[in-house]
Amino acid sequence: MKVDISGLSKFFENRIRLGIMSILIVNDSYDFNSLKAALGVTDGNLASHLKALEENGLIRVNKKFIGKKPNTSYSATESGEKIFRIHLKALEDIIRKK
Amino acid sequence: METRSEYIEDLRIIKKVMEESSRFLSLSGLSGLFAGLIALAGAAIAVFVFLDGKILLRDGFYIEQPADDLINLKIRLSILALIVLVLAISVSLWFSYRKAHRKGLKMWTPVSKKLLISLLVPLVTGGILIIIFYLQHNWQLVVPSMLIFYGLALVGAGKFTYNDVLYLGLLEIIAGIASMILPLYGIIFWCFGFGLLHIIYGLLMYRKYER
Fold first, then answer.
1. What is the CATH classification number for the domain harbouring A19?
2. Phi, psi of A60 (to 5 degrees)
3. pTM for this entry
4. Whole domain around residue A24: which residue ranges?
């Protein structure tokens, strides 16, 4: 049987990007250190994936200061959320069909 | 192209990450069980050591007391209640810490901060009201308020941890309202709400999530 994989997004072939997006779908925003702890990845690795998602308009960066310490947090954009939901639905469909 | 098992793994990761980042899953059933046992032990000390085996709030016991003794009794019961509270919170935190450590989860996350705030707003409000009732000698309102505000705190916190906490909260609110209707039986409702309900809830949670 032919399976439709057109809903799958190349952004989420990587499991770290998949994890980042999963967190930002269920949370309004999440800061860098908490993302790092939740996904168990290194600073550099996380930063490069966040940059890729940001450059493609899937997530938004919010920089602010808590006291004197800079605090960077991230949220999903509307189009990022849409792409993720389509990807999730495609995954579920593939598994159900096969 | 990815294989089917990789897609299944993707879905598993999505579900796990979503759950862990939006709910505090380190809450242990054992916390509930031991908080309940501590509450019952505290109530037993209150009744058998301080209240001479009497459980009704105003069955003549207080009226016959000289005023100085009554003030002493109130202070003793308040100190006992504070000790019970501190012990119960410490034990709950310890079991949660243990569960978090064993499952490799973090205790202090954005969601545990939200959980704490949603607990603290009703608890601090209730706590201040209870101190006011206490100072105004409205003693019969103390136990119902404890149960009702604790219940409201749990209902609010249910969004940020296991959903089951919401049902425990609703039962605490019902117990609090019943206690308001039958003010003489404060200690009995206190044992039911903080003792029995916690023990049953703790055992159910332990069976459901930790075995």
1. 1.10.10.10
2. -120, 140
3. 0.84
4. 10-97
